[in-house]
Amino acid sequence: xxxxxxxxxxxxxxxxxxxxxxxxxxxxxxxxxxxxxxxxxxxxxxxxxxxxxxxxxxxxxxxxxxxxxxxxxxxxxxxxxxxxxxxxxxxxxxxxxxxxxxxxxxxxxxxxxxxxxxxxxxxxxxxxxxxxxxxxxxxxxxxxxxxxxxxxxxxxxxxxxxxxxxxxxxxxxxxxxxxxxxxxxxxxxxxxxxxxxxxxxxxxxxxxxxxxxxxxxxxxxxxxxxxxxxxxxxxxxxxxxx
Length: 242
What we know:
Radius of gyration: 19 Å
GO cellular component, one term: cytoplasm
InterPro entries: 14-3-3, 14-3-3_dom_sf, 14-3-3_domain
Domain 14-3-3: 8-242
Family: Belongs to the 14-3-3 family.
Helix content: over 70%
Shape: globular
CATH topology of the largest domain: Delta-Endotoxin, domain 1
Largest sheet: none
Distance between the termini: 53 Å
CATH architecture of the largest domain: Up-down Bundle
CATH superfamily of the largest domain: 14-3-3 domain
Protein name: 14-3-3 protein
């Protein structure tokens, strides 16, 4: 089995190996690398967290893309009264929702039980809480009623914890801080349906980031510029759709 090979193999850079597997759409194999990163007792590094985040997000993005496509098609067919077409789509959507739910809860549980106590670094803890917020948000996207309210509340609490930690240790142009603000703005826009508040969060992050981005070192500059561009595109899109 691949997991047995991984346990015995002398792979110097597990993170790079996992990225290569993800790029080859071999997520289940990359997942074994993920577990290896999570199960050791070493101090968690920013590189570890970025690797774990990338591996998890790659799979979740596949689930979310499939869910949105099926959901829109299902609603279209139902609107035309084509129950013979919408019913099979409903069954397929429920299956994808089960995958999203199980995977999200697995990641949240992994962070809370295996990762959060492996570091005292403020920025890394902030990143982990941001991830918790993200996966509760992904759950809220597919839920209704009480379950949606509960996931929304937990996402909000995690994002607030992440903000307290990251703002305390990272300047306004830091990529970690910009990515958090972008995710929090999207959370307000899509889950709370508060476009004005979402725009306020995104605009504030963009303005503060632009004002201080030139103070960053070269290796930090490009990541921050890319996130500032994403924030700007998001702001323009929301303003045009108001």
